[in-house]
Structure formats: C-alpha cells, structure tokens
Amino acid sequence: MTHWKAPDTLSQRGRIAVVTGTGGLGFEDALAMSRAGATVIIAGRNPSKGAIAIDRIRKSVPDANVRFEALDLASLDSIEAFGERLRSSIDRLDLLINNAGVMTPPKRQLTADGFELQFGTNHLGHFALTAQLLPLLRRGNQSRVVTLSSIAARAGAINFDDLQSERGYNPMHAYSQSKLACLMFALELQRRSDAAGWGIRSVAAHPGISRTDLLPNGAGARSAAGLARRFLWFLFQPAAQGALPTLFAATSPQVQGGTYYGPDKLSETRGHPAIAKVPAQALDTGASERLWRESERLAGTTFPTAHAQDSSVARMKE
Description:
By secondary structure, the protein is α/β, with parallel strands linked by helices.
C-alpha cells in the first residue's frame, strides 16, 4: 500500500455506499467513491450543506450517482427514520462509512436523547445507525463498515461510571473517550460478525491531523484550537489526504476485518495509508463487550444474534 492515493481506488461501480457527514473528510470520501463509480448516499443533518456537497461532486463528476439524505446522529428518532427510509428504498448496502463527528465543544452539550454530545454523536449515533442498516449490510456484496476514530483515542479511557461526563466535563477527555469508543466498536463489530455469521468486514481508520472544519465547528472559531487551525494551517494535512486511510479501508482488496488504518508518517499525523497502532485500552475485549452492552441499552438498539432473521432490527424507546 506504499504511497496509495485516491486515484488508486479500484472501480466501485455497482456498489452502494452511505457516508455520514457533508463536509471535510466525509465530502472527500463521497467524492472519491463517486469518481470510482459507486452509488453514494451522503447523510447529514443540514440539507443546505448537503445540497452544496452534491453540487460540488456533480461539477467534478457529471455522471455521479449521488444523493443526500437527512440524518441527525444526535437524535435516535432521526437515525431510526433514516434506517426505515433506506430499508424501503434500497435492497442492500455494500459500504457504510461512519465518519461524521463533533469535536471539543467548550461547554457540555446534550443530544436530543440526553447524552453528552460527543459520546452521543460520535459513538452512540453511529452504533445505532449501524444496527439500523445491518439488514441491508448483510445482503450487501462483500459489505464493509468503516468507522472513524482519531489519534486522540490514544489518550482515551472509557469511564463507565460517568460516560456522559455528568460529574465533570473536559472537552478533550470527552472527545478522546468517544473516539476510543468508536475504535472499540469497530473491533467488536468484527468479532460479532465473525461469531454470528453476518458476513460484514468491520474496519477502523483515522485521518491523522487534517485540515477540516471539525475544530472550529466544535471548539469555536476563536478558541485556541480554532485559531491554530486557521493560522497554523500548514501543520494540518489537506482533507483529501486525511481521507486516504478511510478510502483505503473502504475499498482495498488487501483490507482484513478488524484492522485499523492511519497515515504512515510523523507518529501517524500525516502521510499515506498504513496499518495504525491500536491503543492498548482498545484491545481490552472485556471492556469492549461491556461498552457494547451499555451502548445497546443507552441507544435502545439491539443487534441480531446468530440465529435471528437478517431483517431484524430492534429499537426500544421506553
């Protein structure tokens, strides 16, 4: 995979992909998949940004088969409605890229369902989304789920006694926890797919340090992080470069389930796709199983067992 680039992506014609997020890495993922011939569904909460993304892609790829679907990962009702729409409009799904995220809002915020915003959006939202789309993924052609983590996961810890940061909120600690949870989810999803025979390849990826709007949108344009993103832009690799580990994980025949990809240079902060180092805490299978059970409880979502029908999707609102 030495110096793998987006043009190296093999044809994705005939494949159906869902990408969460309308800008930054998500946009680059959707653009590259469109260029490779996939049918792409961009899922995001802002229809205006979605329309802009679709227009930009079609200007670059005039024959792109791409559309926008409304999805708010901070709302379980929105996730359920999105899943219902897709299950009624397509018969299978070949690729899900769990990309969208929130990063370090200075004050603790809550999702529509009362979860801390970063944990609720970055992890629980994508956890519930994957459950909703699992029946379609199980009918997909060599289907994959790629979940975005972060180098911040290295410093993360799952605080089972205070997952929602109710006792104390530190923006970066909450972000690191959410991204560690994303990585643990990706690895556990592969283990469960293997055990239950779902036939899904689950992979994790991270973009290193990339030039997106995640920092200014979360921490604020005038925050220290937002100002660093604006004035020290040369420290951040372009979003298209940061998207490469995700694209490689999503499309390369070399990729095995349960692996983790990131950039290959400067402690995985920039470069081309390569196997990333999994933090020790993400390898704790006992903690991963506990996180899975807690995530099912919090999100009111259950994944089917090995003996369940492939159309089963459960949601417990009470």
